Amino acid sequence: MIYLDNAATTFHKPPTVNKKLSYAMQRFGANAGRGGHKLAVAASEMIYDTAALIAELFNIENPENIAFTHNATMALNMAIKGVLTESDHVIITSMEHNAVARPIWSAAKNNHTMVWANDKGYVNITDIAESIMPNTKLIVCNHASNVCGSVQNIAEIGQLAKARGILLLVDSAQTGGILPIDVEAQCIDLLAFAGHKALMGPQGTGGLYINDKLTLKTIFEGGSGNESQNLFQPDHMPDRLVAGTMNMPAIAALGEGVRFVLKTGINNIYAHEMMLTKRLIEGLGNMENVKIYGSTDMQDRVGVVSFNIEGMDSVEVCTMLDSDYDIASRCGLHCAPLAHKTLGTSESGTVRISIGYYNTNSEIDKTLQAISKIAKSSTR
Predict the structure, then answer these.
(1) Of 240, 212, 208, whose CA–CA distance to 224 is shortest?
(2) Around Cβ 346, how many Cβ atoms within 10 Å?
């Protein structure tokens, strides 16, 4: 199979990730932080080691300010509901995934402002500045769109937020492991990341970084392995946000994924994916009845490309790619209806191809050939 659904989950992982997952299952079958025996201690050390690798990748000073979660959605919910009160105003963009939009609709109800991106998926910093109110507490923005790949200027938004005394929450699900992220330089107060995408970890992994000046409200409580006499969740991180048994084997494997990213180099990973993205966009651009959504520039984007074939439903195209050519893509609204409204594809959705580090020139060429054949069949 040619796998081109990496925006959902990377399918091909470094061999070390699978090896570490198996090793952790066999050697560390204990709860981290529960008990003083060597298996429990080793599990705790393994989790800390993974946090330290992520801290290195994102320039986080203290690894203990990272709380592991099951995915980026859980991290975003923890951040949004942990920060906002009923009187707080929040700003979001029209490019957000439902992992942001739905918690905002739940937590902030009508006390939020939507900043609309342009038809290429980019947000104007002036529009954000003009949306700030006296009670604005939080700005939430994805680093890159999961629909069209547009990358926002997080450093610029972060500087604005910092200057106005507002918190910035960044959804890095599509950029962690692909683009440089520096929580200090980009003035990021809260960073949600997905472990199972470009960080090369297994499904069931993600996390949230919080600035050490913040104490979030908890959205769930339970055993933490310490302060057991306290009937309230501990105030210190990461126990403040982590309760119950952690997915230690998957977190250990995530550590190997992050180690791979650090060793390979963010710039090398990005360059490879952009080379393939350019090849894909240029090929699609030469097809008469194919429409690409978002920017066709190679600047300020990641390898997420959405398109439609004139006269064909996106579901039909994806089904044909899968059944006739053994190519995995994605169709529909991609859990981001606001982004599709921005791009004008709310009714049709799009076919999405998302490139990963393990994809090749040959796979892109075969995919273009398949799309060309499908597009030509639509005009007969």
Answers:
(1) 240
(2) 13
Q: Is the dihedral of CA 50, 55, 57, 58 positive or negative?
A: positive
The answer to whether the beta carbons of residues 284 and 367 sit under 8 Å apart is: no
Convert the pLDDT of each residue in 147-182 to its tens digit. 999 999 999 999 999 999 999 999 999 999 999 999
**Strand 350-354 with 304-309, pairing:** antiparallel
CB atoms within 10 A of CB 164: 12
Tell me, which fold does domain 2-9+266-378 have in CATH? Aspartate Aminotransferase, domain 1 (3.90.1150)
Query: Residue with structure tokens 């699978």?
Result: 18
- Secondary structure class of 232 (helix, strand, coil): coil
Domain-wise residue ranges, the chain: 2-9+266-378, 15-264
Q: What is the pLDDT of residues 176-214, one digit of tens each?
A: 999 999 999 999 999 999 999 999 999 999 999 999 999
**CATH 3.40.640.10 describes domain 15-264:** yes
